[in-house]
Amino acid sequence: MTVSEEKNEAAALSSEQPKPMIPRLVQDALGERLRAMYDIIKAEPVPDHFWALLQQIDQRPSKE
Amino acid sequence: MTAALEPHEAILKAIPRLRAFAISLTGDLDRADDLVQDTLTKGLGHLHQFQPGTSMQAWLFTILRNQFHTSYRKKKREIEDPDGIIAERVAIPPEQAGHLDLQDLRSALAKLPPKQREALLFIGAEGMSYEETARICGTNVGTIKSRINRARSRIADLMGLDGVEDAGPDRIVKAALQEGAD
């Protein structure tokens, strides 16, 4: 992000109505759900073509 | 720990988390796998730029989110998903999703601006620090904090999580105490 984009974002953030921090319990509930979602995705097998890609490159003679 | 791993081994170990992040970020399995594939290709091609002793996972996350935002700028309309339409055809098969909650979470995530979404994923799901998230996202801790606060409020609204805590008399106090706790 460029400096000016960042400034714009900061300006946009501060011009909006200030929101109170959401309570810890809500944060925890949200975190739990995010991690549950992640666990499901991470438990899925990695598609074969990723392994194939890495093996292919592994076998390529090093250019250095 | 990871520093001792051979680079290729470290890359292999990084894949499941890269995928989880990409799927959650894009809300689309095919797009996520393309993104991971591009990230791996790019990472392998620039492996000489990787600094030994640093986190391969973080390095690949950086490449992935940069690729994502580059394509996001290119195809802004396609990716903006205010109604969670893309999220409807997301990765996780319904039988695995189990809880209705997770379906809700995915469509709520899709409604966040991408930079808030990635901050929430790095901190809320990956458990990364603000500092590391800021480094990966190429910004500062203050910006990450703003993004994550806004992301949390919005998601809590969208999912009705506010009801998790009853509006008891000490709610305001708790909220106030919470301020700055991070």
Describe this structure in words.
The complex is a heterodimer of chains A (64) and B (182). With 64 residues, chain A is mostly helical. In chain A, 70% of the residues lie in helices and 0% in strands. Helix content of chain B is 69%, strand content 0%. Chain B has helices at residues 7-26, 29-45, 56-74, 76-79, 85-88, 94-97, 100-110, 114-125, 130-137, 141-159, 171-178. The A-B interface holds A 1, 6, 9-10, 13, 19-27, 29-31, 33-38, 40-42, 44, 46-47, 49-51, 53-54, 57-58, 64 and B 8, 11-12, 15-17, 19-20, 23-24, 33, 36-37, 40-41, 44, 48, 91-92, 96-99, 101-102, 105-106, 120-121, 124-126, 138-139, 143, 146, 149-150, 152-153, 155-156, 159, 161-162, 164-165, 171, 174-175, 178-179, 181.
Q: Topology of this protein?
A:
The complex is a heterodimer of chains A (64) and B (182).
Chain A: H1 3-15, H2 24-43, H3 48-59
Chain B: H1 7-26, H2 29-45, H3 56-74, H4 76-79, H5 85-88, H6 94-97, H7 100-110, H8 114-125, H9 130-137, H10 141-159, H11 171-178
Helix pairs in contact in B: 1-2, 1-3, 2-3, 3-9, 7-10, 8-10, 9-10
State the gist of this model.
Chain A is mainly α.
Count of discrete alpha- or pi-helical segments spanning 4 or more residues of chain B: 11
Q: What does the largest sheet of chain B look like?
A: none
- Average pLDDT number of chain B: 80
Poorly predicted ranges of chain B: 165-170
Structural class of chain A: mainly alpha
Q: Which terms summarize this structure?
A:
heterodimer; A: 64 residues; mainly alpha; 70% helix; 0% strand; B: mainly alpha; 69% helix
